[in-house]
Amino acid sequence: MPLQLHWFLPAHGDGRALSRRAGAGVRGAQRQPDITYLTQVACAADQLGFAGMLLPAGLFCEDPWLLAAALATRTERVRFMVAFRPGLLSPTLAAQMAATAQRLTGDRLLLNVVTGGDPTEQRRYGDWHDHDQRYERADEFLAIMRGAWSGDPLDFTGAHYDVRAAVTTRPPATHPTVFLGGSSAAAQRVAARHADVYLAWGETPPLLVDLFDQARLTAAAEGRALAFGTRFNVITRDTAEQAWAEADQLLGELDPAMVTAAQARFRRTESEGQRRMAALHDGQLDRLEVYPNVWAGFGLLRPGAGAALVGSHAEVADRIVELHELGVEHLILSGQPHLEEAYWFGEGVMPLLRERGVFDPRPAAAAART
Ligand SMILES: Cc1cc2nc3c(=O)[nH]c(=O)nc-3n(C[C@H](O)[C@H](O)[C@H](O)COP(=O)(O)O)c2cc1C
């Protein structure tokens, strides 16, 4: 299967630096996530041939469902991978929203199920369930959401939901592909039972292979097969020196006190994925290239995807081909700022991937279907 490349929508704002306190001039400039700027990023992804865009979910950013609806009117092909937390809305309502979104966007909705990893944020939403309870609830949620799409009214009684005759009276003509992101055993169990694509944040290829192998076995025990995807940041330039100079600049701008505070926050996380991001660099700031062209610098300050592919266009293409050969079918990328970096990647790396036969930028409507 050709690789499907996705870009990231900076629904929390954008800029050149990792930290908002990067100093004067353009390095410290911040772009608000207003609809004009987000439209520019979405149009760039559309035009460059990305199959989809990941729209994150959480209190730090704008709401992804509403953004997808707005951006679909301004783009033609790119799909919208809406992240959402089961448990914050009714599964039947989610099925209905997804069906409406499919009709509004011309079948351009993808779903990314995320259960949340920060207890403080969950409580802001009024959710007191712990990590494993959230996955148990996600399991029931996905059974009901998929059932409601079937057109046959579904009765379901579980520990978290009790619904009668759940149904979308106008089911989607095409069910959105369901991605599930998480690195814990609980995430893999739920992905094995309900997801089409299992996602994990980018790590070294051997570590990713271990995660995918475990998920594959868990799915096989359920009599199912999963596709796999991962998510990296990217810094790609005409030469390796230029790319590493950009990475060094990002690192040099970090305030050590902010890094210490961020690492302490990540240690309190309930997310196995977040723990794995911290383990990638293990606090060793002088050894951030943890695998050729895999740099753990973003994870010093940023929650979530902490690793970046860094190198010349040819080196980045090599790493991506390696990931594809290891089973990655969906690669979600982001870079700072998302508009400029989309072009560095689209004009620098995509042609090489095309030449090597791993990337086929066909219309997203066909490409993103699994
Ligand atoms: C590709 C990818 C994207 C994710 N996007 C989000 C997001 O937008 N919002 C969020 O709260 N969590 C997001 N997550 C986090 C996880 O889905 C999960 O909620 C968290 O890591 C806890 O799960 P774990 O312990 O199984 O790793 C994402 C994870 C992955 C792999």
Note the main attributes of this structure:
alpha/beta, TIM Barrel, 15 strands, 14 helices, disordered C terminus, about 45% helix, 8-stranded parallel beta barrel, binds flavin mononucleotide
* Main sheet makeup: 8 strands, parallel, barrel
- N-C termini distance: 9 Å
- How would you classify the helix and strand content by structural class? alpha/beta
CATH superfamily: Luciferase-like domain
Mean pLDDT: 94
How many DSSP E strands? Answer: 15
Question: What is the assembly state of the chains in this entry?
Answer: single chain
Strand order of the largest sheet: 1-4-5-6-9-10-11-15
Number of helices: 14
What is the name of the CATH class? Answer: Alpha Beta
Determine the CATH topology.
Answer: TIM Barrel
What binds here, in terms of ligands, is: flavin mononucleotide
- Unreliable sequence segments: 363-370
Number of domains: 1
What is the molecular shape? globular
**Percent range for helical residues?**
40-55%
What is the CATH architecture descriptor? Alpha-Beta Barrel
From the alpha-carbon coordinates, what is the Rg to the nearest angstrom?
Answer: 20 Å
Give the SSE string.
Answer: EEEHEHEHEHHEEEHEHEHHHEEEHEHHH
The share of residues in extended strands comes to: 15-25%
Keywords: Flavoprotein, FMN, Monooxygenase, Oxidoreductase
InterPro entries: Luciferase-like_dom, Luciferase-like_sf, SsuD_RutA_monooxygenase
Organism: Luedemannella helvata
Pfam families: Bac_luciferase (PF00296)
